[in-house]
Amino acid sequence: MAEHSDDDWTERHRPESVSLMEGNEAQLRRIRQWLDQWVGGRPPERRGLLLSGPPGVGKTTLARAAALERGWTLIELNASEERNAAAIRRAATHGSQHVSLDQFSGGGVTSGKTLILLDEVDHLSGGFSKVSDDRIEESIIPEEFATVLKGDSGGKAELLNLLEITQQPVIMTCNDPMRLWGRNRNWRRNRDRLLRKAEMVNFRRAGKLHLRRVAHRVLDAEARSMDPEALEALIGNNPGDLRALVRDLQAVCALRKGHIDLSAVLDLAEVAERDSQIDVFRALREVYQSGSGKEANRILMASDKDPDEMLAWFIWNNQSMFDSEVLAEISPAMCMADRSLATKYTNRAFRSWYWGSALSSQAAVSHSPIDGASDPFLAYPDFLRRGGEAWRTSTVVEYLSEDLGTSKASIREDLWPNLLAVHESTLGGDPGEFAVAKHLGLSGEAHLALHGIPRSRKEARRILEEFDIQRESGPDEAITEVISEEGDSDEEGTSGTQFSLDSF
Hints:
By secondary structure, the chain is mainly alpha-helical. The protein has four domains: 179 residues, Rossmann fold (3-Layer(aba) Sandwich); 64 residues, Helicase, Ruva Protein, domain 3 (Orthogonal Bundle); 104 residues; 89 residues. It has 26 helices and seven strands. A hairpin with a 2-residue loop joins β3 and β4. α5 packs parallel to α7 and α12 packs across α13. The protein starts with a helix and ends with a helix.
């Protein structure tokens, strides 16, 4: 770990106190007030702190800096670790009830605290259902033949329990709070349950002034110099991501020894490419805020995402933007957009491509969002973000590649995201519906993989049994019928469909 810290500038130059952090001044004041209450002997009513915001703005850094600055012990659980109810109780809940061994000095107890940091809690999967205490305790100290908790089972429920009984400050970080609440009909209830016990602070991306300050501090510490125009060019391409800025500084200093001029920054731009998700977030935000169909369409046409990708983003984020009645009203337009975009597999008719994009953006601006927020919070679609795990893709992608006579890369790029969307539970996917898997000739295990259900889950056995029972019934008639209807329309040409689209 030490070697990594020495080589990684983001670790080497991580602020060691809250006062050294840049940006989000109002948020930092709120957090200091919350931390001071713990020192004063009267813990705050809400004993958790939920830091929300995009990656790279300093959420995790703040928690670590606060602990270091105040001399507190730090207990940290990261998203890469197992975080089920047993893991959280073992590492965090138990620790929240006692003072740290580091607090004992000179025969007495100091005013020190143990800061519990739960990083990226929005990556906790599952709902808020509780797991029995007996199962949790058995998993903490597993005995022979005992059932051990897997994955994130009971993690969110234990998180609520931790916030209820903790005697130590708890800081949580997340990029997408909607993912933490859950995207089912109970998301508001889940949100309210957690925010009754934790104060939420929203972090914003850093401004240009703060980016300059961080850059100068890093350059001074590394004894490097940079032309002002070179620094401005580096900052100009940065969306407000402090971590990305430090990494860019390290990269440009590695490319060019001595003084850094503008040409070095331009050379870096040629060998490095910024993550395009910032652009898509900006495009969606502007669409939802525009209130104009014409302006929304202009924004979408200028986006760096293809219309079919944008459709997926709209489908996902519309669920949190609008209530069920509005979703029902705009669903015909979304369906027409989807059918129009499907023509890319048979032809490259530009107007179908155009309408596929236009209809989805028109639907997004046809009604006001639920909360009327001026700055809507947008989320990355789960079925685009996830689903690349080897246990899900290895057998399914290989089978489809052989069956369709195409490359695995083509399957992953063109077909796999669509299959994930069809089987996504938050978009209506039902593990008990086998029509797609049967039509494609997939196995029961492949059907589980499409739904993201590990073979070890209890429900997996039931689903496989039902799958085997229906396997003998042959190809699904409903799908066959739909395909036949679509085939008939293709034989007549696209003019009829195109005419209906152009009539809008």
